[in-house]
Structure formats: structure tokens, C-alpha cells
Amino acid sequence: MSIFAVPGVQLLDVAGPLDVFAEANRQRAGRKPMYRFRVVSASPRPLTCSSGARLLPDATLEARGEKVDTLLVAGAPHAVETRLDGAAVAWLTASSKTARRYGSVCSGAFLLAQTGALDGRRVTTHWAVADQLQKTFPKLHVEPDAIYIRDGRVCTAAGVTAGMDLALALVEEDLGREVAMNVARELVMFFKRPGGQMPFSRRGHAEVSGRSALQESQRWIAGHLHADLSVAALAHRAGVSPRHFARMFRSELGVTPADYVESVRVDAARRLLEEGAHPPKQVADRCGFTNVNGLRRAFLRCVGITPAEYRKRYAATPPGA
């Protein structure tokens, strides 16, 4: 298998999947290794990774004689702005056409998408740049919540450690469930990670934007979570009709007033849950939800897991501690 890397690459995008495949080889003790590895780059010189560590490529784009079975393109913090040169695009295009499967890890999707190899495919990437990937490459079908996606020969993973989840899924595909489970046990990782990216993201975090009248409304919402935050009430404060307010809000912010209010309340609830000291009923009350069930439904819509599960994962002080 080959992993294509650029200068500034995120080291774990490379090392994570490679360690999964290497452990799969070790699980087949006494038998021929299933996987051979190559880190491919445009230059034979060591790559300085985003962490400052240096990575020595195994091959360059001019290398011949080894067919690519599995191709992954690693991400980098600057991948969103990086434009590949003609040689890199040509190599990735040719390799993706002949490989048994190909894809990307994290923001590596921005690099691979430049070849057209992801056009028309369901893909994912890190939640923080998923919207930008969709806007930059509109022919892709970006699913921002997925940990990894397999669409035919295309396999893409979300941010960083999700590359290991993808690699484990490929090991299961190649060598079966038992081997993949043994790899997961050895590397102390989930065999199937629960949930998606939503609990990690702040996609629901509402920031003040738009014209001044709307900014005032947004500040009022953030400071008065217990108040009547219906369209009618907000429109009255803004001095416009409810219909005009709703239309203006959606046009400028891209969401309805109701969705915005819910996102602000959920974001406030997340902060309280992360503190770990507040029971769900108190969180619901302090954030303007009618009851715990209202908090739970909103949390599931915006975050993808229940408030109780979120607190269990992210609270500074675990419940009952």
C-alpha cells in the first residue's frame, strides 16, 4: 500500500494507518505479510511534518515497478490551500485509476479531489473543513458527520485518528473480523467507534454575524436563554414583522431563527455538561429548555448523542466523582 504525503503532512495521518496494517501483518505470524508499505512524496528529501518531526519517503513520483494496491492521501494543516503541481496530479490520477482502492485521510481529501478521482463519490473529511471541501469541490457528496466512508473503490476518513478506523475496516475486509478485532485489541482502539464526528465538532456553535439589527438579536438570545425567543418576540424587539425577520435571518445567517436559538442553547448546555457538576435537569433549566426531554431531543439533533453520554465523555469531573 502507498501513502502520498506532502511537506507539512500530519504525521499521524501516515503513521496511524501504517501501524494498523503493520499489526495486521504481525497477527499473521508465520505467514507471508499481507501488506507492504511505501510513503510516496514528490521529493526524496525528508519531509518536515506539521509537528516538526521528519519523515523520510520510501519513493518518489518517478518510482516505477510497484503497482499500487491501496492508495491513501494523507492530510496536512495547510492542505485546504495547497495546489498540487502537474506531476503530483498525474501520479495520483494514474494510481487511483489502477489501484484496487484509493482514498484519503483527513484534509488529504482536498489534495485527492484535485485529480477528479472523488467526483460523484460520497466522501468525508475533518468536520472543521467539511463545508469548505463541499464548496471547493461541488461534484463531491461530503458527509461531515462520518468517521469514514467506503463508496465503491473510494475510502475516505475524517480527522487524523479516524485514519486508523478506516485502516481497521480495510483489514477486516481483507483478513476477516477476527484478525481485525485482534488488531483493535492490541492497539487499544475501538473495533467500531461509536457515533460520528458531531460530538467533537462545534458546528452548532453560533457566532454573531449579519447586519447590526440581527447582531443585536443574536446577543440578546445569548444573554436571555430563558426569555421568549420565538420569531414573533424577536421580530418585535427588532421592530420588524415576524415574516420579514425570519426571511432576513435566514438570508443573512443561513439558518432559521428557531435553529439558531436551539444551537445557542445546545452550545450553552455543552459547556455546562463539560464542567460536570450540573445534573441534566439543572442544565435544561439554565439553558432555556422546557424540560430534560427537550434538552435530550435538541442534543441528539445537534450533537448526535445524548447529554448523559456527552457528559460521560467530556466532563472535566466525571459524574459521581
UniProtKB/TrEMBL annotation:
CDD domains: GATase1_AraC_1. Keywords: Transcription, Transcription regulation. Residues 215-313 form the HTH araC/xylS-type domain. This is DJ-1/PfpI family protein.
